[in-house]
């Protein structure tokens, strides 16, 4: 038996009828773009985040891009972000002609370290874009305080954190705008690409509804140049079927994380730390070890999934060379990329597969290679 990264087939068995019924509804209506199911999903995701508006878009990457577009960010502006994230956190900034300024991560949580924000002196910073990496919120109290003092907008990259919270306040509730992804492997994943922006700001919500539809508030009358990035009704149908299960699925991930911690605590590895006040939803369960590549090869041999999120820090990606960063500039992120390893975590993992992962990791450190 192998241990996969996810078991979406098993997940589907539990929701099959509901999904099929809603998908049938979409085909009956033959309305495939936005529409009542997408609106329902927008309402429900906004409620989950305790904000007024949800704007369904075509992906998490577009949710970030459109958020920055709505704030009017472009050439001559700078946006602060983390070097340790998925690519589109930064491409959203540079695509608009703005400059990305990287702030190194906190080595414990791997999230942007707000203590380093005071080193930023550029006067053209318009926004800060923190990421809730692996499903744990960044230190939003400190980030927001720093931003408010300077009248800078905060855009949350909450792509990995739907249902997570910090001191009782949900992901998506902290930024001027917040971006979610419904990529199929996310804790709430669609049957294809999808994303959402949430906000409490009425004007920005209206602007975003226009920007996602070519900048037209009324069809064929364009006030601004937007893009085509609307949520499909079929995605909304699938996501509405899954949403009622999100809390229990996240809870199951939390239980598995606790079990991993217990089972691996005596090994020479760093286990993920849940910061006080954080309700982590373990989109990923990421350990750290300086023998990461050896461990990964060992698990691969046994058919046990593991993955490196992420192998290259964003400031050292070839395509961002023009930003002028070099090796040695952001040491914590550069160290993390050499040490992190995600182990399988998903609600349907089950005892047997969990046991296989634990046994293999223990064997690696205690018997075969130490
Ligand atoms: C942190 C982060 N930001 C942005 C994205 C982009 O989302 P999508 O793949 O839906 O475009 C992802 C997911 O892939 C992500 O993990």
TrEMBL record:
InterPro entries: DegT/StrS_aminotransferase, PyrdxlP-dep_Trfase, PyrdxlP-dep_Trfase_major, PyrdxlP-dep_Trfase_small. One of its GO terms (biological process) is polysaccharide biosynthetic process. The keyword NADP does not apply. Keywords: Pyridoxal phosphate. The keyword Transmembrane helix does not apply. Transmembrane segments: none annotated. Coiled coil: none annotated. The modification N6-(pyridoxal phosphate)lysine is found at residue 186. The active site is at 186 (proton acceptor). GO terms for molecular function: pyridoxal phosphate binding; transaminase activity. Belongs to the DegT/DnrJ/EryC1 family. PANTHER family: 3-OXO-GLUCOSE-6-PHOSPHATE:GLUTAMATE AMINOTRANSFERASE, TRANSAMINASE. This is Transcriptional regulator. It comes from candidate division LCP-89 bacterium B3_LCP.
């Amino acid at each position: 038996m192998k241990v996969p990264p996810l078991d979406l087939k098993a997940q589907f068995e539990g929701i099959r009828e509901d999904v099929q019924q809603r998908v049938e509804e979409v085909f009956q209506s033959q309305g495939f773009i936005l529409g009542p199911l997408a609106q329902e999903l927008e309402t429900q995701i906004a409620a989950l985040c305790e904000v007024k508006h949800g704007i369904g878009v075509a992906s998490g990457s577009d949710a970030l891009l459109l958020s920055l577009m709505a704030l009017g960010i472009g050439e001559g502006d700078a946006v602060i972000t983390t070097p340790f994230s998925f690519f589109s956190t930064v491409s959203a900034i540079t695509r608009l002609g703005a400059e990305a300024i990287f702030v190194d991560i906190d080595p414990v949580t791997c999230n942007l370290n707000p203590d380093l924000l005071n080193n930023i002196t550029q006067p053209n910073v318009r926004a800060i874009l923190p990421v809730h990496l692996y499903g744990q919120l960044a230190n939003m109290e400190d980030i927001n305080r720093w931003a408010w003092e300077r009248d800078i907008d905060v855009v949350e990259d909450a792509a990995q954190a739907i249902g997570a919270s910090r001191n009782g306040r949900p992901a998506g509730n902290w930024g001027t705008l917040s971006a979610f992804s419904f990529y199929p492997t996310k804790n709430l994943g669609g049957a294809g690409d999808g994303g959402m922006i949430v906000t409490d700001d009425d004007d920005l919500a209206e602007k975003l509804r226009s920007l996602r539809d070519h900048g037209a508030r009324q069809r064929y009358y364009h006030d601004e140049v937007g893009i085509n990035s609307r949520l499909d009704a079929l995605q909304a149908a699938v996501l509405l079927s899954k949403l009622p299960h999100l809390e229990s699925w996240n809870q199951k991930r939390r239980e598995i994380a606790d079990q991993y911690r217990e089972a691996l605590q005596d090994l020479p590895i760093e286990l993920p730390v849940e910061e006080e006040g954080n309700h982590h939803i373990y989109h990923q369960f990421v350990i750290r070890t300086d023998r990461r590549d050896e461990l990964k090869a060992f698990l691969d041999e046994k058919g046990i999934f593991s993955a490196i999120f992420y192998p290259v820090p964003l400031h050292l990606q070839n395509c961002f060379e023009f930003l002028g960063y070099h090796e040695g500039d952001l040491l914590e992120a550069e160290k993390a990329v050499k040490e992190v390893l995600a182990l399988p975590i998903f609600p349907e993992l089950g005892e047997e597969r969990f046991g296989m992962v634990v046994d293999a990791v223990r064997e690696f450190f205690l018997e075969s290679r130490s």
